[in-house]
Design brief:
alpha+beta, serine protease inhibitor, elongated, Wheat Germ Agglutinin (Isolectin 2), domain 1, 11 strands, three-stranded antiparallel sheet
Length: 251
């Protein structure tokens, strides 16, 4: 079980015992903590790789077991990010604001990447939340089919990654599928990215999924969905490969 899944289970309150049992539902908090208090975090608990986390009390817990025990004592305790707590020039982070100053380092082209793949993935994962408009603005697909508008086409492309859009509508009417495919990339607009951003207010990002993303703005984003939404507002935002660059939480 990877760190992300274990973190998801932790957000259920503190169900470390459920990690062992490979369950995904939550038991009452009192029962969880009673079970957790029986665990020897040094000997009995078996971490999966490096599980050290910096938490909202600015303490680094060596593994998720120690974090879970601490959360039973302080229910407001949250994970800020994996690894060591990052030194800042201001007071320890306040979990209700983003007042902590970001690192002064700047991302470089070699360790930051464009988020297009994340936006594509999130659109397709969450497309059922999006209600496409009734607007008639046909798109000609490389499969020889018409789609009512860009939104409907983008959803269809999630199920058929090779599907392309063609600007010349007459091709869908008059050409064979083989001929259509020969001009598949004529329309180079990134429709999926565009549709995610147009419809982002319809999308509710999961609040039970913790997979921290470090942005080139120095902010942590809770997961890929939140990062993708932020990129819609800031086209220069990039995914930063090192979590140590970020020192602020979003929100």
């Amino acid at each position: 079980m990877d760190f992300e899944r274990r973190s998801v289970l932790l957000l259920c309150s503190v169900p470390l015992i459920l990690v062992w049992m490979h369950q995904t539902t939550c038991m009452p908090l009192s029962d969880q903590c009673a079970q957790i208090n029986l665990i020897d975090c040094n000997k009995t608990y078996k971490p999966e790789g490096n599980e050290s986390v910096c938490c909202s009390d600015m303490i680094v817990y060596d593994n998720l077991c120690f974090f879970a025990k601490a959360k039973c004592v302080n229910l407001s305790l949250t994970i800020l990010h994996p690894g060591q707590c990052i030194s800042t020039t201001v007071n320890p982070v306040n979990t209700t604001s983003n007042s902590t100053t970001a690192s002064t380092a700047s991302p470089t082209a070699s360790n930051s990447t464009a988020p297009d793949d994340i936006i594509h993935e999130q659109f397709c994962l969450l497309k059922d939340q999006i209600h496409c408009p009734d607007t008639l603005d046909p798109v000609c697909g490389t499969n020889g089919k018409f789609y009512q508008n860009d939104c409907e086409f983008a959803k269809a492309k999630c199920n058929q990654s090779s599907l392309g859009a063609i600007a010349d509508m007459t091709i869908c009417k008059s050409q064979t599928t083989r001929q259509i495919r020969s001009v598949a990339n004529e329309r180079d607009v990134d429709i999926i990215r565009e549709q995610f951003c147009i419809n982002k207010d319809q999308i509710t990002c999961p609040d039970t999924l913790l997979h921290l993303i470090c942005g080139s703005d120095g902010l942590f984003y809770m997961n890929e969905c939140e990062f993708a939404k932020a990129e819609c507002e800031n086209r220069n935002l990039r995914l930063y490969s090192s979590l140590s660059f970020c020192s602020r939480r979003l929100g």
